[in-house]
Amino acid sequence: MDTFTKAYIPYKGYFSSPFSRWQGSMQNDNAVSLAANTARRWFLEKKIDPTVIDYLFLGSTVAQNHWFIAHNWAASILTDDQKYVPGLFVNQCCSTSTTILNLAAMNLELGIYDVAFALAADRCSNGPHTVWPDPLGPGGQPEREDWNMDNFGGNPRHRALMVETAENVAKEFGITKEECDAVVLRRFEQYQSALANDRAFQKRYMFAPEVTVTRKKTKLMEQDEGWTPTTAEGLAKLKPVRPGGVLSFGAQTFPADGNCGIIVTTKEKARALSADPKIEIQIISYGYARVKPMFMPAAPIPAAEMALAKAGLKVTDVKAVKTHNPFAVNDLAFAKKTGYDVMKMNNNGSSLIYGHPQGPTAGRGMIEMIEEIVLLGGGYGLFTGCAAGDTAAAMILKVG
Fold first, then answer.
1. Are 184 and 190 in contact (CB under 8 A)?
2. pLDDT tens digits, residue range 44-53?
3. Contact 73, 156 (CB under 8 A)
């Protein structure tokens, strides 16, 4: 199938938590149980019975305790075992949310179920330090791996730090440090608009998780934490991370913690579950790509081109473009290739500014895109974002 015709998202049938900085307010909670408990609280607050769900897709990338059967564990928490909902566990690094939405829509299109829930959760904080048996090693010594830090250095076949892949793309596209700094400043300004009027835009979709402070104390985490106030002068003073490069620490994101959830269902049930039945949100198409090794930030371009082609659209036909942009280079390369105005992408925030928990990053981006298009009166939206291993995924949504 090139496009979806039956997969809908109820208006307000989604949430994202705020994103917590690395080793911040979410560091003490298992990401899976925190996400499932947050989703259950959200369902009940919205007066939606969680047992309406027929199937759960859990997206997560950083191992947590009880990860082996985390999808069914999350479903049990979500429904309080009032309904035995099966699930599927998906890890596609930073494009995980996009892909679980695609899987949810695909199976709905085939009539496998009527209501799916796409739940994404990650905690980069306190990442696991794993030990792998190596019977053939000297003296049977095990292999050791730091789940986050070792894998931030690339895959075993092509070892390159993520920032090196961005520098490779910058060189290929002729991107300068001044261009990167200008994009970062613009993204910061766009994020500030989401905080205006007592965070009016964020309150359209954001839901506070109850996080553990101590063994006896919890709190509601209401806002993002970890973003940095940004000025043109401050960015100009920062030197590139790599000698001869264009990306300073100010032009890249930071590891974070967070979760999000999205209901995917039929047109009729979306209308019944919607906060406003007059607003329809349809999943239209999905695109994917893998580019040459160590050029990760270029991958969102062909993924977006595939999603647009399947939908029969050009980039000029979309009302909003959102990206997962771990580096300013991502957006600049996309703009140079497609002709889309780099300064008009990512209104109201992006992962470059508010951080990157991996699994839920794309989900939050798509939720923000939906709300942006609603405010614009409807239309198509394009989300695209890269993932480790020089891959990417994209999705077209339509708000009517």
1. no
2. 999 999 999 9
3. no
In the chain, count H helices and then E strands: 12, 15
Average pLDDT over residues 186-202: 98
Please check the confidence at residue 358 and state whether its pLDDT lies above 70: yes
In degrees to the nearest 10, what's the CA dihedral of 316, 253, 222, 82?
Answer: 80
The DSSP output letter for 11 is T
Q: CA 56 to CA 46: how far, in whole Å?
A: 19
The alpha carbon dihedral of 285, 4, 262, 34 has a sign of negative
Q: Quick one: tokens of 329? A: 């280079």
Q: Are 70 and 89 in contact (CB under 8 A)?
A: yes
140 by DSSP, 3-state: which? helix
Beta carbons of 361 and 97 less than 8 angstroms apart: yes
d(C-alpha 262, C-alpha 116), whole Å? 9
Residue 210 neighbours by CB distance under 10 Å: 13
Domains of the chain: 162-204+281-399 (3.40.47.10)
Amino acid in position 392: A
pLDDT surpassing 60 at residue 1: no
Amino acid at 396: I
